[in-house]
């Protein structure tokens, strides 16, 4: 059995773009886990999307060997985590698999919204936190000011904070030595039954389900019969291994190890991330603590542009869901778009990433509807219905009131733009609860906002007002009663379900007018006039008219008096009137694609 005192499990947590992945690269170089010739930027970011956007989407584990100054060789299991608010569930899973966390803070930016959120998550898991002040070689760096913020805002002693630079390699050895000195050896190793936490998983076409695990007690080797505690699914281990950083097969995973196990399970839905694996011969009765279920906050319909690809989309979503615990989906159908799925996401970036992965990894051409949240609709008979799709909204005459979810947002901004940000919060129907001054240049606003209002453009506008210096972190708040209505879009007096949305009454007219104008631009003209309307119940709130195609019926009429021309024009007028009564307008697929993609 391996010596537990020589094992350290830790992760790197930080606000987005504070240099986590670059620091991981330097740690891999310093411990010679990766040869110099194989080294490349953002080595642990495996997805093309991660490299393109410069963000980490999935947590990435790696095992390193480090010879410390005391002459001993230590095994380090490092997990690189995402920084964006939408992927905080990835961070909570990684923290559950560790005993320590390196909290990275950019010396030029200081403590930001996700820094506070991630530090709080680590404290809740009782982890040893090592503050690292990164990018100290930048001309705009303020290491001492950042050190003071760590103490004042996060209440973490900053005397032994490590000053470092992932880019130029300053302080890398000090970080590794701090991990040896301060991070405790693996916990719960003396538990009588074998237990391992699944903190991530993926589906391999050839091997089946591969679970990324942190072993807490007992050992796991090929041939062992195991069971999953959430649903009692049983399986035999086919292969075990570690990441260095590519998967490397080994004989056995012992306590404290972070690696992977290949399960003899073909049903992707059976493996739940956050589940505990134990042996069938000597099963554990209590799962590994420290993991909470994630709830999607944003919903959107996802449909294949080619309806023949419905089954392919279904299989692709099942494979993505095993790799992403926060993605939920249920089948639904739309008159305009055919068969598809109602998908739940953690936020708008999460939604964008999933849709992009479906397009790239599974070669699907998809279209998505306007994002929505879960509303509570109370009807006159005293019943409460959860509605995430405008199509399921009860009749307006039956509705007593509607409640919408809110968020508690922490907004870190430079103090010179506080007025503009408060105006943005007010515009989004929010309120500022209180303001904290971080230092002479930065403030933190604690605001309550309706979740529906921050879905589309809030983050973009926050960044543009603060010139990129603002940051946002949020958590779900309470439900509040709001004056919400279902807005339908009618083309030729027929409602088009794909364009329906639930909006606040004050904003319905502006949004309705915008959609009507856009449809007028994109719809092909017919031989008769087409009314395009936005309506709340039976009340029309916006209207555009698509003019008819002019057919010159008098072109062949030459000579004769004016009555002959008039007779032809009257005949055409009658024909158009009759056509308008029986004419149907079919909206081309590309109109849906352009409006919904532009809307989302």
The first-to-last residue Cα distance is: 54 Å
Strand content: 25-35%
Query: How would a textbook summarize the main sheet?
Result: 6 strands, mixed
Indicate the mean pLDDT: 82
Uncertain segments are 42-46
CA-based shape = globular
Q: How many strand elements?
A: 28
Adjacency order of strands in the biggest sheet: 2-3-1-4-5-6
Number of domains: 5
Helix content: 25-40%
CATH T-level fold name of the largest domain: Rossmann fold
CATH H-level homologous superfamily name of the largest domain: P-loop containing nucleotide triphosphate hydrolases
User: Number of helical segments?
Assistant: 13
Quick tags:
600 residues, alpha+beta, Rossmann fold, Elongation Factor Tu (Ef-tu), domain 3, Alpha-Beta Plaits, 5 domains, six-stranded mixed sheet, six-stranded antiparallel beta barrel, 13 helices, 28 strands, 32% strand, globular
Structure, explained:
The chain has 600 residues and is of the alpha+beta class. It folds into five domains: 4-182, 3-Layer(aba) Sandwich (Rossmann fold), CATH 3.40.50.300; 195-279, Translation factors (Elongation Factor Tu (Ef-tu), domain 3); 298-368, Alpha-Beta Plaits (2-Layer Sandwich); 375-482, 2-Layer Sandwich (Alpha-Beta Plaits), CATH 3.30.70; 486-599, Elongation factor 4, C-terminal domain (Alpha-Beta Plaits, 2-Layer Sandwich), CATH 3.30.70.2570. Helix content is 26%, strand content 32%. The chain contains 13 helices and 28 strands. The strands form five sheets. Strands 2-3-1-4-5-6 form a six-stranded mixed sheet, with helices on both faces. It is globular.
């Amino acid at each position: 059995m391996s010596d537990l005192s020589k094992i350290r499990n830790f992760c790197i947590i930080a606000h987005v773009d504070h240099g986590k992945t670059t620091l991981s690269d330097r740690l891999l170089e310093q411990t010679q886990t990766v040869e110099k010739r194989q080294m490349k930027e953002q080595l642990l970011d495996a997805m093309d999307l991660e490299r393109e956007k410069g963000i980490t989407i999935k947590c990435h584990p790696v095992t390193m060997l480090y010879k410390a100054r005391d002459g001993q060789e230590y095994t380090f299991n490092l997990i690189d985590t995402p920084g964006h608010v939408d992927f905080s569930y990835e961070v909570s899973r990684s923290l559950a698999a560790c005993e320590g966390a390196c909290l990275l803070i950019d010396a030029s930016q200081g403590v930001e919204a996700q820094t506070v959120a991630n530090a709080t998550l680590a404290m809740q898991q009782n982890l040893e936190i090592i503050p690292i002040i990164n990018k100290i070689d930048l001309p705009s760096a303020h290491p001492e000011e950042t050190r003071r913020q760590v103490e004042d805002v996060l209440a973490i002693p900053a005397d032994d904070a490590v000053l470092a630079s992932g880019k130029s390699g300053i302080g890398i050895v000090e970080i590794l030595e701090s991990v040896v000195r301060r991070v405790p050896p693996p916990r719960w190793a003396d538990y009588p039954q074998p237990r391992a936490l699944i903190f991530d998983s993926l589906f391999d076409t050839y091997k089946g389900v591969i679970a990324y695990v942190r072993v807490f007690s007992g050992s796991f080797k090929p041939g062992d019969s195991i069971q999953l505690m959430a649903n009692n699914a049983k399986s035999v281990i086919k292969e075990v291994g570690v990441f260095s950083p590519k998967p490397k097969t080994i004989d056995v995973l012992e306590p404290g190890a972070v690696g992977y196990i290949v399960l003899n399970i073909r049903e992707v839905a059976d493996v739940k991330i956050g589940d505990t694996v134990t042996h069938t011969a000597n099963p554990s009765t209590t799962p590994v603590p420290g993991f909470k279920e994630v709830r999607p906050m944003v919903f959107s319909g996802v449909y294949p542009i080619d309806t023949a690809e419905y089954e392919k989309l279904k299989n692709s979503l099942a494979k993505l869901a095993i790799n992403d615990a926060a993605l939920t989906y249920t089948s639904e159908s739309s008159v305009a778009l055919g068969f598809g799925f109602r998908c739940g996401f953690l936020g708008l970036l999460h939604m964008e990433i999933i849709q992009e992965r479906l397009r790239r990894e599974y070669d699907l051409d998809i279209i998505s509807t306007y994002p929505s949240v879960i509303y509570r609709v109370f009807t006159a008979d005293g019943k409460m219905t959860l509605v995430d799709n405008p199509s399921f909204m009860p009749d307006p005459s039956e509705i007593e009131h509607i409640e919408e979810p809110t968020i508690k947002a922490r907004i870190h901004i430079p103090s010179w733009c506080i007025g503009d940000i408060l105006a943005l919060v007010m515009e989004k129907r929010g309120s500022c609860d209180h303001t904290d001054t971080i230092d002479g240049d930065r403030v933190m606003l604690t605001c309550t906002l309706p979740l529906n209002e921050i879905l589309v453009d809030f983050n973009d506008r926050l960044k543009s007002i603060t010139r990129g210096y603002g940051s946002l972190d949020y958590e779900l708040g309470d439900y509040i009663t709001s004056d919400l209505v279902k807005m339908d879009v009618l083309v030729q007096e027929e409602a088009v379900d794909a364009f329906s949305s639930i909006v606040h009454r004050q904003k319905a007219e502006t949004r309705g007018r915008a959609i009507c104008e856009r449809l007028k631009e994109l719809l092909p003209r017919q031989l008769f006039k087409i009314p395009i309307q936005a309506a709340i119940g039976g009340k029309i709130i916006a209207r555009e008219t698509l003019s008819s195609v002019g057919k010159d019926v008098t072109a062949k009429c030459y000579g004769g008096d004016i009555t002959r021309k008039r007779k032809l024009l009257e005949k055409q007028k009658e024909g158009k009137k009759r056509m308008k009564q029986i004419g149907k307008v079919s909206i081309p697929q590309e109109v849906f694609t352009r409006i919904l993609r532009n809307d989302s």
